Fold this sequence. Notes:
The chain has 274 residues and is α/β, with parallel strands linked by helices. It is 40% helix and 13% strand. Bound molecules: adenosine monophosphate.
Amino acid sequence: MKCKEPSQKNQKSTGVAQAVPSTEQLTQPNRDRSAWLKGPAFPCEMIPQNVARPWRLVLLGAPGVGKGTQAQLLTQQLGACHLSTGDIFRTAKSLGESERSPAMSAAMDYMRRGDLVPDATVLQVLRERVNCLRCRGGFLLDGFPRTVAQAEALQAALQEQNVALDAVLDFELPIDEVVARLSGRRTCEACKAVYHVTGLPPKKQGVCDQCGGSLVQREDDRPESVRVRMEVYEKSTAPLTDFYRRLGVLVPIRAQSTPEATLALTMGALRSRG
Ligand code: AMP
């Protein structure tokens, strides 16, 4: 099912040359992503328009490297939708048992342990949402693909939709800093805005600045899950960089500084790719 036409809500024209936003803008609410989060039976009420160029990007990097934050910033800069597979599974978690497919319930167990959800389930989820790949605003895929098999399936799906990846942004950060970032991360239960207890605290402790929702630590950000996720990342996801390097679309980005500085590096890299 297609996304509905946009409502009256204002959507800015976007382009690579826009100014880098301030830190406050990090917590602006995401655009409507119903079709992605809940599946094709829930079309988006609001889809991007006046997007000068639809960027189709994959964001790579270990958990905690700041992909989610960069995705929020890039959404504002480029007008592209933030498509996170982790958000799909977390949304499914908040549904009632009867509203979830058995495959989704099984996926919850993997996620709770910090393991990867099996490719077959993830690819089924992608197939249901394949229309999002040709959204006129473009997309920022975050958390997918995570294995070479998923990357190959994505290439096939993109070809079917007659679109291609513009770049694969690989955010790089030393492991000690990854652990520090993850343990302090807090996410809004309602709108999914991301904060950090020291790096990006909310105005009121435990409360989302944007929607007043509760800020929680994700189950998979607990130390025992983080350890598993890092091992899983090294084993399964690192080979993706080789895959995309061979395709000529890999763009390494140093993510050691502030979100704004990382965004500036990213925008510079995109600008040079035209
Ligand atoms: P994330 O928010 O991307 O860190 O994802 C949270 C969790 O969702 C992961 O630890 C996995 O259990 C699951 N997950 C999300 N995306 C994928 C994927 N592409 N392949 C397998 N599992 C995934």
